[in-house]
């Protein structure tokens, strides 16, 4: 009745009373990729520049921590001017 993919979905469902949770196995996610080595530092911390480059669309223009990068970012200027 169900395909293998549907069976796999039901295998990862957790039922507790009237609570339902889906907990997929992490190893089977084909879309997840490890971070590139250029982003990861040896101690696991990332630089502000790396964080800014990854999340620049979500960082407010008035953010004081990233002000140095915001002022120099050509992507933001293009976005403000409406240039593609």
Short note summarizing the structure:
By secondary structure, this protein is of the alpha+beta class. Helices cover 36% and strands 10% of the residues. It has one domain.
Description:
By secondary structure, the chain is α+β, with helices and mostly antiparallel strands. The chain has one domain. It is 36% helix and 10% strand. Strand 1 and strand 2 (19-22) form a beta hairpin. The chain is elongated, with a radius of gyration of 21 Å. The mean pLDDT is 78.
Note the total helix count: 4
Please write the string of helix (H) and strand (E) elements: HEEHHH
Percent strand: 5-15%
What shape does the CA trace take?
elongated
Any idea how many domains? Answer: 1
Q: Over all CA atoms, what is the radius of gyration?
A: 21 Å
SS class: alpha+beta
Q: What's the N-to-C terminus distance?
A: 49 Å
Segments where pLDDT lies below 50 for 5+ residues?
Answer: none
Identify the strand order in the major beta sheet.
1-2
> How much helical structure, as a percent, in the residues?
25-40%
Largest sheet: 2 strands, antiparallel
Mean pLDDT: 78
Q: Count the E strands.
A: 2
């Amino acid at each position: 009745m169900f395909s293998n993919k549907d069976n796999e979905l039901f295998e990862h469902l957790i039922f507790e009373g009237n609570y339902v949770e889906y907990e997929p196995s992490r190893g089977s996610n084909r879309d997840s990729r490890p971070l590139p080595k250029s982003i990861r530092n040896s101690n696991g911390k990332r630089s502000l520049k790396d964080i800014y480059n990854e999340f620049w669309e979500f960082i407010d223009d008035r953010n004081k921590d990233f002000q140095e990068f915001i002022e120099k970012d050509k992507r933001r200027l293009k976005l403000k001017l409406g240039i593609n």
